[in-house]
Amino acid sequence: MNIRAKMFGGSDEAVEQPFVMPAKRPKGAKADVLHSIPVPREEHRRCNTRDGERHRLSVDQVRVAHAGRLHDVELINLSGGGAMITGNFEPMLWDRVDLHLAGDGVIECAVRWLKGDRIGLEFAHETQLDCSPDEQTKLLRTVLHQNFKDGEFEAPARDSEPQPDDDDQRVATRHPLIWSGMLHYDFQSAPVRLRNISSTGALIEFEVPLPVGAEPLLDLGAAGTVFGTVTWVVGDQAGLKFHSPFDMALLAQARPQIAPTTWQRPAYLAPGTSADSPWDAQWQRLSVSELRDQLEGFMKR
């Protein structure tokens, strides 16, 4: 570039075109957009510091059954095997509460935490089998025979007095088995946990978005598959109505998991809640060995 010609002019040389620098992309945050510049986090959150509600549910009015009475309560949070509610009733720690979510969606719970008018609930661990007592006895016996070897699980020592061996006691006994499966919907597959199941439907716990009216395929592994329609969704719980009757006896073909003896407290419940589960001592849930012995004795009558 001829600087003198540019300053004084009059040069015979061809006038050069001015040199134009390419436009640079602006750095930093864009106007009125707070997320346009990333801010790296140097340290992860070490604990749950939220004292308030973390996720407000769209459907927050539910009912609970306690001591033979129904109460209207507000559902503040529901996830991770438990719920936080508030309402005008006063349960005691370890009390049984049946949480009525929607339609026939009922989850058996235990009161784990009390703070003011807020109540923390833990869901029953085992998969509830909605069938006749005889069908349930036969199913559980077959499950133990096909999936659990003798002596695989030791029965814990019990200090309580032995219970009478009758039909009512047999039906009231809690088994420790949890069935799971895979839910296939909209080209995606995700694991689900069966909270309860019958020949006409199931209450499932899931981790992916699932809209009401969806028609997923529930895959129970060796127990088979069944299509259903999602009739309601509250938090991570959903009701599934089967398109065709499901043979409950098929559950014996799928190996269930054993319910844990400790409780993984959801993050939204108050810190300091004991991790000891009420489902063993207070409500007499049998071990696999005890359940086998009791069922074998009943079938030999």
Architecture overview:
The chain has 301 residues and is an alpha+beta fold. The protein has 2 domains: 63 residues, Elongation Factor Tu (Ef-tu), domain 3 (Beta Barrel); 172 residues, predicted glycosyltransferase like domains (Thrombin, subunit H), CATH 2.40.10.220. The protein is 13% helix and 31% strand. It has 4 helices and 15 strands. Helix 2 packs across helix 4. The longest helix has 15 residues. About 14% of the residues have low confidence. This is PilZ domain-containing protein. It comes from uncultured Sphingomonas sp. GO terms for molecular function: cyclic-di-GMP binding.
What brief labels describe this structure?
single chain, 15 strands, Elongation Factor Tu (Ef-tu), domain 3, 2 domains, Thrombin, subunit H, 301 residues, alpha+beta
CATH fold-level topology of the largest domain: Thrombin, subunit H
Strand order in the sheet with the most strands:
1-2-3-6-5-4
Largest sheet: 6 strands, antiparallel, barrel
User: Total number of helical segments?
Assistant: 4
Domain PilZ: 54-126
InterPro entries: PilZ_domain (IPR009875)
Biased composition (Basic and acidic residues): 151-161
Region (Disordered): 151-170
Fold topology:
Elements: H1 3-8, E1 61-66, E2 69-79, E3 82-87, E4 96-102, E5 105-115, E6 118-123, E7 128-129, H2 133-147, H3 167-172, E8 177-178, E9 180-185, E10 188-197, E11 201-205, E12 217-219, E13 225-234, E14 237-242, E15 257-258, H4 288-299
Parallel strand pairs: 7-10
Antiparallel strand pairs: 1-2, 1-4, 2-3, 3-6, 4-5, 5-6, 8-15, 9-10, 9-12, 10-11, 11-14, 12-13, 13-14
Helix pairs in contact: 2-4
